[in-house]
Amino acid sequence: MKLKDFRKNMKKVVFSRAEAGLVCANDNSSVLNLQLHQWEKSGDLVRLKRGLYMFADAGFGANTLEIAKGLYSPCYFSLEYVLSVYGVIPEAVFKFTLVSTKATRRFETPAGIFIFQKIKREAFTGFDSETLMAEKEKALVDYFYLHSKDFQANDAFWEHSRLEAGATNLNFQKIFRYAKLFKSKKLDTLLNSFYSYAKSH
């Protein structure tokens, strides 16, 4: 099959080896593998991980969502990446941080580094179903929960963290509501301490 015909029939930018097999139903496995390899070698396809490809000219930035979904689902963007987007943390983040109900994984791809961290299924909420972007409050709760061992519930720690700079636009009622999903005393203690510090600054 020619590339233009394959692309027309695929109708997706990011696709799996299995999906390619459905489009090229008349080709045997060896022929399909060779064809995918040739398109990758010619620069028409990019291999994101074993068995996952995308059309090279589609652009990474415009397809970050589809790349993330193809790499590891279910998932949503959260943690440092989302906190940086919303300005809750001042630092720029040069990797994509996500959460999933599956085991923690890291993928280094031509599109960037994607880090997926596991949270309990009951807490897998608080994100837009179309963009897979967490609300800033949920991203903060996920961040506190997954990094709780590195946090301290005292003013000196919060001052050093500079988190309070972005706290003015946070809905703490929503934060505490999301925190209940984790059923973690350590998380509750940290969030209460952070709330008290943010209120006083």
List the strand order in the largest sheet: 4-5-7-6
Report the strand count: 7
The description of the largest β-sheet is: 4 strands, mixed
Overall structural domain count: 2
Percent of sequence in beta strands:
15-25%
First-residue to last-residue Cα separation? 64 Å
Structural class: alpha+beta
Helix proportion range: 40-55%
Instruction: Give helix and strand order, one letter per element, not per position.
Output: HEHHEEHEHEEEHHHH
Radius of gyration, in Å, reads 21 Å
Shape: elongated
- Helix count? 9
Average pLDDT over all residues: 93
Catalogue the unreliable spans: none
Brief synopsis:
The chain is of the alpha+beta class. It folds into two domains: 3-58, Arc Repressor Mutant, subunit A, CATH 1.10.10; 64-199, no CATH class.
Describe the structure.
There is one protein chain. This protein is of the alpha+beta class. It has helices at 3-10, 17-23, 29-41, 64-71, 79-85, 136-146, 155-161, 172-179, 185-199; strands at 14-16, 45-49, 52-55, 75-77, 96-100, 105-109, 112-118. Helix 5 (79-85) runs antiparallel to helix 6 (136-146), helix 6 crosses helix 8 and helix 8 (172-179) runs antiparallel to helix 9. The termini are far apart.
Keywords:
42% helix, 4-stranded mixed sheet, 16% strand, 201 residues, 2 domains, 7 strands, alpha+beta, Arc Repressor Mutant, subunit A
